Amino acid sequence: MVKQESESTNRPDNTAFTQQRLPAWQPILSAGIVIPGFVLIGLAFIGIGVALLVTSRSIQVLELDYTGDSNGSPCSSCSQSVIANCKCSLNFTLTTLFQGPVFFYYGLSNYFQNYRRYGASKDDNQLYGDLSYFTSPSSSCSPYDYDSSKKPIVPCGSIANSMFNDTFTLTWTVNGTTNNVPLDGKGIAWWTDYNIKYRNPSVTPLKNAFNGTVKPINWAKPAYELDASDPSNNGFVNQDFLVWMRRAALPNFRKLYRRIDASGDYQKGLPAGNYTIDITYNYPVRAFNGAKKIVFSNVSWMGGSNEFLGIAYLVIGSLCVVMSVVMLIVYAKFKFPDEE
Amino acid sequence: MGSVVSRFNRVRGKGKSEEERRLRANDRSFNLSHGYANNAIRTSKYSIFTFLPLNLFEQFRRLANAYFLFLLILQLIPQISSLSWFTTAVPLVFVLSISAVKDANDDINRHKCDRQVNNRKVDVLMDGQLKNEKWMNVQVGDIVKLENNEFVTADLLLLSSSEPLNLVYVETAELDGETNLKVKQALTATGELEDNIEALAAFNGEVRCEPPNNRLDKFKGTLTMNDDIYALDNDKMLLRGCTLRNTEWCFGLVIFGGPDTKLMQNSGKSVFKRTSIDHLMNILVLCIFGFLGFMCAIMAILNAFWEASEGSLFTVFLPREAGIDAHLSSFLTFWSYVIVLNTVVPISLYVSMEVIRLGNSFFINWDRKMYYPKNDTPAQARTTTLSEELGQIKYIFSDKTGTLTQNIMTFNKCSINGKTYGDLYDFSGQRVEITERTERVDFSWNNLADPKFSFHDHSLVEMVRSGNPENQEFFRLLSLCHTVMPEEKKEGELNYQAQSPDEGALVTAARNFGFVFRSRTPETITVIEMGKQVIYELLAVLDFNNVRKRMSVIVRGPEGKLTLYCKGADTIILERLDPSCNKLMKLTTNHLNEYAGDGLRTLALAYKDLDESYMKDWTQRHHEASIAMEEREEKLDELYEEIEKDMMLLGATAVEDKLQDGVPQTIEQLAKADIKIWVLTGDKQETAENIGYSCNMLREEMKDVFFVSANTAEGVKEELLNARRKMCPKAAEEPSVTTSRGGLFWVEKMETVQDEKVDGEYGLIINGHSLAFALEKNLRLELLRTACMCQTVICCRVTPLQKAQVVQLVKKYKQAVTLAIGDGANDVSMIKAAHIGVGISGQEGMQAVLSSDFSFAQFRYLQRLLLVHGRWSYIRMCKFLGYFFYKNFTFTLMHFWYAFFCGFSAQTVYDEWFITFYNTIYTALPVLGLSLFEQDVNDRWSLQHPQLYTPGQKNQYFNKKAFVRCVMHSCYSSLILFFIPWASMHDTVRDDGKDIADYQSFALLAQTCLLIVVFAQLFLDTYYWTAINQLFVWASIAVYFAITFTMYSSGMFLIFTSAFPFTGTARNSLNQPNVWLTIFLSSLLCVLPVVAFRFILIQLRPTINDEVRAKARKEALPAPAPRRTLKKRITRRSGYAFSHSQGYGALVMSQKFLLKGHMRRLALFDHRDSPMVQNQPQHYRTITEESESQSP
What we know:
The structure holds 2 protein chains of 2 kinds. Chain A is of the alpha+beta class. Chain A contains 10 helices and 12 strands. In chain A, a hairpin with a 2-residue loop joins strand 6 and strand 7 (177-180). Chain A is extended and about 85 Å long. In chain A, 38% of the residues are buried. The longest helix of chain B is centred in the C-terminal third of the chain and has 39 residues, at 861-899. The two termini of chain B are 57 Å apart. The relative contact order of chain B is 0.10. At the A-B interface, strand 1, helix 1, helix 3, helix 7 and strand 9 of A face helix 12, helix 33, helix 34, strand 38 and helix 35 of B. Strand 1 of chain A pairs antiparallel with strand 38 of chain B. Chain B: The chain crosses the membrane at residues 60-77, 83-101, 283-306, 326-351, 880-901, 913-933, 962-982, 1002-1020, 1032-1056, 1076-1097. Chain B: Mg(2+) binds at residues 399, 401, 823, 827. Chain B: Keywords: ATP-binding, Coiled coil, Lipid transport, Magnesium, Membrane, Metal-binding, Nucleotide-binding, Translocase, Transmembrane, Transmembrane helix, Transport. Chain B: It is found in: Endomembrane system; Membrane.
């Protein structure tokens, strides 16, 4: 090459970047990587799948529907009446120990908490205890922002208004004696919801903060009376309220109601015996073909019972192995690229 | 201030167009009253104040931007706003500001350029004295003084000059690209003003002329001076953009200033070129709009059903808003889904495409292998929006002179008296290839020799020096028979000004061999013959023209001997020889054939002794004929014919029209890449044919080369038909034209002439006259059909307009991507017409480069531009598009599936902030990394396997089919991505029994899965992982988690209460093993089928890319291409070619020409025109050699 460095002011820089010679890793889908890769992934998936399935199978779940659609069911009368606090009860028997810790859920189906307008219908500032939003709730709460007499609703919006208001008590009958099973309602909501997102206004007594506001239309009592006995579980930081406000992603969902307090007889879970759930039936779901249920469940390291993941891993793992065989055959037949 | 006034006036004047220009010299107030533009130019678009509104307006004229503005407005309507306003506003502002920054930068450069030009200084005559003024302050009607080598300030009427006859010489390279000097002459009446300042200041001539226009070769006007009216034409005009040469000074009157000058009028708006990908993109975007509308309609209908069956029952908990019933609700749902699903039309698509193209343009600018060190010229991508089209070229239209050739002639061989000189033989008698290192003949004995001349055959010098009479006569002829002008600035430093480079080469050869043409007057020629000064009396010049194909001079030697020396085309000369030299003729003919076979340009030389009395008679008749009023030409021709016969043959010369380095190899490479090359040249048929052979486009192996040169439409048709029938006897008479519809809304009708298969290779050479007929409506399809059957097409003698027509013909009926490459102003039209125009830079003319899209210094860089950069750009763009659509469709379709679970309520699957950042932050850089650095194989492999280029021509990597595949793939991925999380989350809880199937956790899970799958897909698509790619991907993943955790942190909620409602979601769900197992599962389920599919596809149907990649993996570097030696050709044909047009014979003989100061300077041409100056030793390298030597 002619060397004319002196006048080469326009000569481009000779760097790997400008000359597009950057060192690079150039992976290629070669048989040596793809086929063993599929085998390995397949085997790993089968392993994970088995583990997941075993874990999932070990979880005990008990589901009891109490909607009362059919005439024979215990709550059918309540489901048809419009009386508030209608009582009905549900019996079930455990033949063996229900391994603890046991969680007590209520479940709703065909319930669209994920409907866009429903989900937007709340006021985060109000729920954060900002008093200025008590008097003028966000318009997103409409039509539950003001009542008919133009008084602001606190907490406003559809979500709060539609809060689940059935209550349950659980009794255990063994040897003729009936014991109330202790239920623990503390810490059933997310820590961040309880400590960060939701706050009561710092006014004592709490009731005063709500002056000039009205309770949500569907509520029996105002927010400051949700749990009058425990100030740390009252108002916006009431655990049941928090659980409800964390809206579900899908139309069929369950929400944590209580934990079985692991003390005394219940240290290991729910012992065998006959149980009765007394239900205060308030929540109407039949209008929209919904269903209500009670779920008892324990958990494992991978959360609640879900067989899907285990099965999926197993199926896909096997498919991978099958696929690797297919690819091996194809490769053996065509041999591209000709290696050695 | 002046410019403000003039702009105001221009604005005012726009209403009524100027019909006639009237101006008076030295009368500013009169001229100002017409409001003509002054000499300030403005090419910039914006000023500081107008930038924002104008630029925004420009940007919103783009469909995509307007669409997003529309979306933004939709989002502000609370009833349908399914997304917060910022999800569209943030990306839109981001996109707009990137474009704005780019526009601002461009405009600042234009401002700088304007300022530099406007601030040039010139002497203006004001108030009776010359003042140095800025260009922008020059007004119409001012008189300016120009000095040698200065740029012409504005369009001037030449008044007077320092040269005799009021001549000035100008170089018009910047205007029309022609490098030879042009002569302009002032009116005698104004010429008398000379440089008398007082007279000039008193000059009050009034000019009436045509309004500003863009015709460079026409000017019409009158000058009224002291009641006399003079006609003005183009010969008296100095146009802006020219440079004054060889003229000490001149005065001119400003006629057109600034924007009105012909230069600026010509520079007008250049056509905005769009690539075929752009067109495809427009169609796809429309399809996507349709698809979007379709999806939204489905959603609206399903919403109506849902409202009827579920929603109306659900009103207990979710009452409808006042005044909205089920029907209205479904209508609103439509618009809500338009907002939610808007991301199928990716907002950052256009801006990303711009960035990619810009990046690829920079890589072209930076490429050292396209940098030409000799004149320090790097390659330049002047249009940054076309890079991927370089990978799809199907037809190349090339100029010849200056593009394929260097426009340098070298005297290579000669045949004297039946003996050939110029070849070197080794001891065994084998011909030796002449290279750089071959020893050159020493001419130091001749102190007038041109040091740059090189010759390798010593025997010729020995023969001449030994006094061989034939050899001496041979060079004497070369030193006498020409129209070259000598220039001797210093004693012994001769420079020749030749009209054609062939002539320059021949005279220089004679000079070095001891017959130095030293000077000429109209009557004499002074030659230094072997050191002795000899003066010949020049009696007549029988000038060259295209019919005669020869030129002769008649001289009287010092001893009084009368001789006619003649040189010309072999076919012509050999006919006119004395029968006595039959034997010599045979030998010489053999030599001529040999030279022709080597692709050299040949001339035969002959002489004839004349006797005094005949000459006297002939001179008398010649004089009569030359003043005859009728049939002067014919009479002269007759006389010439009469005297130029029975000549004695001296020999023949062979001049090499030097090809640029690597031209044959480049053409071969491009042919292998299935690119067709058509040469369109203004040269004559012989020259063009000659070059066709020497650069390997026409080959001996070709079955036939057809010539179309008829002068009637029927004749042309006949010739075309014959050629076609010969090539393809079975073909149907009518061309098979497929008509299809395309373009936006399928309104464009497209006709495509199908390619037809032909056995063997053919060549076609078509003449300019014939081309004119062939381009007529009824013949052009026939032309196209025949031409496309041929491997090589050469069009000679074509006008610039025809060049453009040919390009357009192919563009229109072949639907193929075309590239035009040229260096001169005559190529501008085709450069502008083709999809891609390439200018050869580093030459003097700038017009071609200025209107080109890409420019570089050597033709051979074209292969790198296309086969490496073009191919990469195309691959990158296609990968980018495929991936980008995949990424956005997958992202968007998730909303669609979710709709079935949320009552078609336009609920988004993801957090709004994720939607905002997805395209702009999370995935922007990895995609750019892919589309800037991707290479399937490196440059050497790309050049080694030109076949890799063909998928681009066939549009294989990204087309409608690929788009549909991409959408299907997205459907699959989005189904997996939605339903796997759905199935694994719908009924589960955290490991502490708390809720995890809530909306926010689900959103987080879905978006994390999506992002990981999208990156995994990127991983599969990227073949070339540089550190930057790795950095981009890992950094983007890190940034995603960092931003997510930050946005979902308690702190953010405490600061901005309602802006980030997802508080705690990340830490509450991403610590769950089943969440990660779900992410893992869905990612692999998306990726594995793709891997398996691609693997099997490679096994079953490996593409050329797969093969080369596999090969590149095994061998580190491609094997160097074997060096090929030039094959000897044997076919008989004439090698005559001479780039000479009707010459300066008359001027040379003109008495007037040397009227004044003939001792001073005799420069008709600026010395830089001399090809000899440029005749530096050239390296001849093969391409592989070069790439090796440049590797580190």
